[in-house]
Every structure is written in structure tokens, then in C-alpha cells.
Amino acid sequence: MPLQRRAINGRSINPVGLGCMSLSWAYGNRPSDADGVRLLQRAVDIGYDHFDTARLYGLGHNETQVGTALKGARRDKVFLASKMGIFASGEKRGIDCHPDTIRRELEVSLKLLQTDHIDLYYMHRRDFTVPIEDSVGAMAELVKEGKIGAIGLSEMSADTLRKAAAVHPIAAMQTEYSPWTRQAEIAVLDACRELGTTFVAFSPVARGVLANGVSDPAALPEKDIRRAMPRFSADNWPRNLALVEQFNAIAARESVTPAQLSLAWVLSRGDHLVTIPGTANAAHLEENIARWGWEIPSAVSAEVDALINQQTVAGPRYAAAMLPTIDTEDFA
């Protein structure tokens, strides 16, 4: 089956990109810098052409690694996305998307990434102290200057997207989406289609859960962010694990891996979607693209829908303390 390419901002890309975060932060144990660079370069060599990073990831470490890996001929082969707006070190903590901050942060990212432009630049979260129109206006100036190719938003609502798009076209909306996280279905997926905005699904294998990557959350490394997420708690995990076991059985029956099943399910939700699963494992890197031309049969998609959805998954996706930073619509 031929690979169906997708597009962001008019640029044709493969449907499965690479989320680079886990090379620096959040999940598992961070690989060595040399191993991280090798994995990124291997990704380009086997066909990945969309990398997603952010200043937050390792507080600049991830952008530095990506810049090192892409320096030279590989840079032109990759649609490069980064993000600004979340600060998590020193005295400055929280979200800041003031126009002067956006410009200042971009200059730092360009230096770390060793490039003169970023193809897609996101506001990582909504800054509720600044009108979205002002933040987008500042980013539009950066587009005019050629320092960024396009504007993206992350974890924002359909209403925010429409307000932003009234100022400048929004190339991409990045939000968590997988069979077990469905908030995007409330309004954002439809708004993206309406406005010509590509929906970029992060955590499309449910933070490793639908890639057979978590058996016992208590065994995760101490600093792994999943340990603090409600769905991985001692109360909720047994119910969720039971869903995973049934999901894995569907994958085995269809002769794909669980990760491949989840990725195909996400991509089947519309031709305006792309995915960015993350990994620090070379075998998973290859697994995630090995069947990227496989289309999930409609009956199998319906079976996944019935098994794993907002009603069957136990626990919210974020702890209560995180919710004030999330602009995406949520279920009652």
C-alpha cells in the first residue's frame, strides 16, 4: 500500500514525524548525548522528515541535540518545529507569550538549533495574560522576516484557534490525541479542518501505554512524569491495563504492533492529521514507520473506538494542578 503523505503549511511530509522530547526529559532515563544525536540522524536516514522539539525539553538540551544532529545536509531534509512560552527554571516559571518574549526566545532557539529559520514555531501554551491576537501578531512579524515559516498553537481551544487565525493563518494545532485521549474530538479537529490547519497529534500511542511500553507504573524511573498522572495511579491503572490487554489482542490479530495500530487509528481520523510519536529507542523508531502506509479497516477502527474511549479509560489525563494551563476543551 503506497504511503499517503500529508502537509503542514503546504509542505509535503510523511504522516509520522518524530517527537524529540524523550531524548531530554519526561519519560524514562535520558540517553547519552551521543546516543541521542545518533538516533536523530538515524531517523532522517530512514525517512523521518518532521522533527518536533521545544525550549522546555531539557531546558534547551533538546534543541541543542536537534541542532547538532541536523547540522549540515540533514537540515534541509527535515521540517523543523519548536515551541516557546513555558518557563521552568530559575526565577521565571510559568507561561509567557508577550510579544517581546516571543522574539527574544526565538533568537535563542535559532542559536541552539544552529539554523537561520524554524519551519514551524508554536506557542507551547496559551498565555491568558496576553490577548492571543497580540501573540500571533508578534509571530506574524517573524514570518515576514523569514525567521519562522509558519505559526503553530499547542493545547488550545477551537475558539482560540479561530481568534488566532483571524490575525494570521495558523499552520498547525498540536494537542494530545489517541484512542484514550479524545478531547480534540469535542471541537478542535473540526475547527482545524474548517480553517485549513493541520492537526499534530502528540502522544499518539498514549504516552507509551498503547505501544506496550508500560506494564507497572510503579517501576517507572522516579522522575518520569507519568508517575504523577492520574491514569497511572494505583487506583486507575488496573482498569486501564485491562483495556490495554484487549487492545494488544486486536493488534496481534491484525498482524501489526500495538503502536502501529494506535498510529493508524489516529491517522484515520482525517487527512489533515499527522502524528509525532516520541522515542529514545532505535527499534521503536523503526517500528513506528514500518507500517505507516497501512490503513486501519473501518471495522477495526470501530472496535478500538468501542474498547478505549473517554467513558472506558479510568482517570483524567492531567492532575488538577495542570488544568489551568490547558486551553483545550474538556469533557464535563
Automatic annotation (TrEMBL):
Keywords: Oxidoreductase
Organism in which the protein naturally occurs: Novosphingobium hassiacum
Domain of life: Bacteria
Pfam families membership: Aldo_ket_red
The protein, known as: NADP-dependent oxidoreductase domain-containing protein
InterPro entries: AKR, Aldo-Keto_reductase, NAD(P)_OxRdtase_dom_sf, NADP_OxRdtase_dom
Keyword Nucleotidyltransferase among record annotations: no
GO molecular-function term, one example from the UniProt record: oxidoreductase activity
